[in-house]
Amino acid sequence: METFAFALSVTGPIFLTLLIGYGLARLGLLSESFVDDASRLVFLITLPVLLFINIFTAESALADEWPLLLAAALGTLVSMPLAWLLAKPLDYTDRSAFIQGAFRGNLGIIGLAWAAKAYGSSGLAQAALLMAVVTMLYNLAAVSLFAFYSQRQRFSWQRLLRDIAQNPLIIAIVVALLAKQIGLVLPQILLQTGDYLASITLPLALLCIGASLDFSLLRRSSVAAFAASGFKLMIVPGILLAFGWVLGLPAQSMGVLFLMAAAPTATVSFIMARAMGGNSQLAANIVALSTLLSVVTASIGLALLKFVV
């Protein structure tokens, strides 16, 4: 019972914050324009600052985390073709949205928030490094999928590499690693200012995600949406944890690996589906459904993991 209480203390506040954002939006207290501006602020400024500060001030070095990063990368690479096989019975135009919804998690907000709540700044630093590795794989797979299944756009290595190089989250992580490697010393006033900006990131981002959710879509959820959500919330974490076990990860690293893998489908999957000619309705259903169910699956999974590891 104690382990489940710990798990619920990690996932519960995050989910309640999402619900508060959802409720405030329905009451008209969070306008669409505010959510757009706040989301842009988080993506361009406060989240990169959060990632930089936590990696730069972390006690562990990148070399210490290679087993965690390897487990995440291998697990993700295995999950992708399995999701593709699961999508084979679907209509051709639905497959890209299904596959991306089945493996692409909301690492940048919900995954980081869970890791920070469970393990503090050290867990957040580990999660940030994991996010950098997995996000690159996500982008490569997502663009390739939509280009393959869509008649509207073709795959472009140049566009993909440009998108990765211009991603402010990846830039912040790389700069932090370089600064840490060369032994850069930053004035305390800059670090304190960074902490102020970083502290607003996760609450503001969670409110924005909650405000953007449309649970009315759940009434139109299909078998495909349930299958993709189930794969994302249960199969993907199981695959990544298997690699973590093989590589002998310690308890905290296994916990971070699980929480990042168990995060619900990223909202960007809906944006990409709409922009690149995929089934945006299916993508939206997967996002809403996986977000709703993730509080249950992640809580149970974290409780079991804490019990056995």
TrEMBL record:
<comment type="similarity">
    <text>Belongs to the auxin efflux carrier (TC 2.A.69) family.</text>
</comment>
<feature type="transmembrane region" description="Helical">
    <location>
        <begin position="169"/>
        <end position="190"/>
    </location>
</feature>
<keyword id="KW-0472">Membrane</keyword>
<feature type="transmembrane region" description="Helical">
    <location>
        <begin position="196"/>
        <end position="218"/>
    </location>
</feature>
<feature type="transmembrane region" description="Helical">
    <location>
        <begin position="68"/>
        <end position="86"/>
    </location>
</feature>
<keyword id="KW-1133">Transmembrane helix</keyword>
<feature type="transmembrane region" description="Helical">
    <location>
        <begin position="128"/>
        <end position="149"/>
    </location>
</feature>
<protein>
    <submittedName>
        <fullName>AEC family transporter</fullName>
    </submittedName>
</protein>
<keyword id="KW-0812">Transmembrane</keyword>
<feature type="transmembrane region" description="Helical">
    <location>
        <begin position="6"/>
        <end position="29"/>
    </location>
</feature>
<feature type="transmembrane region" description="Helical">
    <location>
        <begin position="282"/>
        <end position="305"/>
    </location>
</feature>
<dbReference type="Pfam" id="PF03547">
    <property type="entry name" value="Mem_trans"/>
</dbReference>
<feature type="transmembrane region" description="Helical">
    <location>
        <begin position="254"/>
        <end position="275"/>
    </location>
</feature>
<feature type="transmembrane region" description="Helical">
    <location>
        <begin position="41"/>
        <end position="62"/>
    </location>
</feature>
<dbReference type="InterPro" id="IPR004776">
    <property type="entry name" value="Mem_transp_PIN-like"/>
</dbReference>
<keyword id="KW-0813">Transport</keyword>
<keyword id="KW-1003">Cell membrane</keyword>
<dbReference type="InterPro" id="IPR038770">
    <property type="entry name" value="Na+/solute_symporter_sf"/>
</dbReference>
<feature type="transmembrane region" description="Helical">
    <location>
        <begin position="230"/>
        <end position="248"/>
    </location>
</feature>
